[in-house]
Amino acid sequence: MAELKVKPINGDCVNPRLNVVFVHGLDGDAVGTWCYEGGEDDGYFWPRGLAKDMAGLAVYSLGYPADKASWGSGWPIAEAAVAVLERLMSNRALRASGDTPIVFVCHSLGGLIIKKLVLVADRDRGQDAQKGKFLDRIRGVVFLATPHGGSMMATIPSQMQWFVSDAMRDLKANDAALLDLSNSYRNCIADNQGRIRHCVFYEKRPMFGVAKAVAPMSADPGIVGVRPVAIDRDHGAICKPLDRDDPVYEGTLRFLEDALATVPPTRDDKLDNILQILSQKESVPLEALRGILAEMGEAAESYSAAEIEQKLTVKASEFVSLNDRLNRLSNADPETSRLRHAAAAALRKGSFAEADACLAAAEARDLSGAEDIEALAKEKRISAAQTRGERAAAAMLRTNPDAYAEAAMHYAEAARIVAKAEGSVARNYLWRQGAALVALGNEFGRNSSLLEAIEHFRKMSVSCSRKDDPPAWATTQNSLGNTLSMLGERESGTARLEEAVLAFRAALEEMTRERVPLAWATTQNNLGNTLSRLGERESGTARLEEAVLAYRAAIEEGARERVPLQWAMSFGNQGVALMRLADRRCAQGSLSQMPCCDAYGLLQRVIRVDMAMSALSSAIDGTGHYHVRPRPVCLRPSCVRSANNGHNRRSSGVPVSVERAMSSGSQGGRAPGCGSATGV
Questions:
Q1: HSE of 523 in the Cβ direction (CA atoms, 13 Å)?
Q2: How far apart, in Å, are the Cα atoms of 10 and each of 21, 93, 139, 251, 301?
Q3: Angle between helix 378-397 and helix 334-348 axes, rounded to 10 deg
Q4: Residue 328 is inside which H or E element, if any?
Q5: Is 87 exposed, middle or buried (0-12, 13-18, 19+ CB in 10 A)?
Q6: Contact 9, 19 (CB under 8 A)
Q7: Is 256's pLDDT higher than 70?
Q8: What does the pLDDT read at residue 183?
């Protein structure tokens, strides 16, 4: 029985530019199908000829169960496609070639299996990102006498109920499943804008002088722009070129060369370009950026190039700040200063382990010279804490969960070192410890880290006296509220969100509008976001009304002229809350009972969200540091009609355009909204 196996033809190809996979047909195998007169060694084996004629070509030949007879093993097309896809995705050599493109050369049944493989990968890419990535690597398919419409040579024995395999039954002429496969494949190719190219050859001679196995019409896949080419061979010989001058050989070689010429930049090429641009734009050494990217580890494979660029941009900014601090930190001990400068130099080379070792040595030197740490001078404590804090900042440059956990530990130790010398500095390090835990929970989906951060901020609220240091206590409450809200959004209940509301309101008691107006406005916006989320989960309107009031307060203080980005976020969030409130009132039947002018006024304020989004886009143009998060809203058309009909009885003109705008916005069931740009 034939095995499902991928046979490498030229295993010595290093860093290939193109992968080619040969797929045999019915009753074929990975070698004999492609050999003219003899076996792989004594006949002309053209897959190896292609590898020699085209530099950078990695060639493979796939074998799979394809027997004609029922006592053999002939897989049906759908079953074979799934198995072949999994086998190719798990092949070590193909995986090692990264994003290197793939072209399939298929004979007969093999072409149908590859067509089905493409459809399976396209269908499953939403649930399995690896299948989507594999599909994106496919650049072309060569069809050699593939029966897209089936074959009469399969129809007769199948109808006579002879002992035929499932594979042969699937090849019946005009079979409904084959017709559906052809239509679906053509649609898939069209949807992908012809990214997968095709080359088609069909037989001119009959088998055994009787009939053609695949009629010209059946050999035509019906793809726009693809013209089948006739070859003066029968079905069995069309896949066995005589030599390098054979039309099938030359046509396939030209197709491969054209496919390679049109290959877009690989993922590695894109990342290298991103690194080059960021290095120049942010004045960060290229080796440092490479080191940061390497520290992302396997997680980077799941990110798109755009996502990696976003993360690297943030880390580049952090690197610049850290490098500047390390070079500016002063110390009476020349050796400590030297070690800090050495750490900065190591970071510029992307050597994070070396940088951490230098900072650890500097910290140890600051702590040396006294048997009891409590006897250290204040200056020594602060200096040692600064060094430990920079170790934490360096760890945060490495975008992986272990590094973030390490950073939290370093910040905790920095706080411990400086606690007896300067309480306010210690609180700052404790706050950074909490921020690192929140980043760990937020970026890597670890709810346990968010729970740890919540407990951490609660302890800080207790240790930081509200009476002695109201601003610090209020800041901690705000951080607690943000973390509770983040976790509450992931959970199904409302308990965390309720706690977050209490924390924000407690912060506002000390973080008053008179003392810190902009911080007060930001907290109002955070409170509004949490109340809005509560309103989504509750059936009444009270929470949504409270959210609108909170946003309004934030807008009044965070004026557009002073802080345009913050104003745009609050303005947009208020618009979304108003839309949701109008929808809720409509569902409860209360909107139609409102005075006409009030209902119309509510809807008129709702559509201001578009103004906010325009302002937000203008405010963040070019920064790339804030991303709008769509929040689903369904505004029922009846709600709009109820308000507008009443308003039309008092005025004319404007309400019609409002109804048109609102009706258009409600068709998709979604409206844009802004997430909170709060941090912790």
A1: 28
A2: 12, 11, 20, 21, 27
A3: 10
A4: helix 305-328
A5: middle
A6: no
A7: yes
A8: 95
Distance CA(6)–CA(84), nearest Å, equals: 9
The closest of 638, 635, 644, 629 to 665, measured between CA atoms, is 635
**How wide is the angle at C-alpha 150 spanned by C-alphas 146 and 152, nearest 5°?**
115
pTM of the model: 0.53
pLDDT for residue 41: 63
Sequence spans of domains, the chain: 5-261, 266-396, 513-680
Structure tokens given for 513:
């509008």
CA triplet 631, 634, 640: central angle to 5 degrees?
Answer: 130
Provide the 10 A C-beta neighbour count for residue 296. 19
Measure the CA–CA gap between 392 and 326, rounded to whole angstroms.
Answer: 13
Q: Whose CA is closest to 548, among 601, 477, 595, 471?
A: 601
**With 80 as the cut, is the pLDDT of residue 588 above it?**
no
Helix (H) or strand (E) holding 18: strand 18-23
Q: Which helix (H) or strand (E) holds 115?
A: helix 109-124
Distances (CA, A) of 253 to 28, 99, 200, 210: 22, 21, 13, 32
How far apart CA 390 and CA 383 sit, in angstroms, is 11
How many whole angstroms separate alpha carbon 380 and alpha carbon 357? Answer: 19
CATH number belonging to domain 5-261:
3.40.50.1820
Query: How much is the pLDDT for 421?
Result: 81
Q: Count of CB atoms within 10 A of residue 260's CB?
A: 18
Rounded Cα gap, residues 176 and 166, in angstroms? 15
Neighbouring-strand partners of residue 21: 60, 104
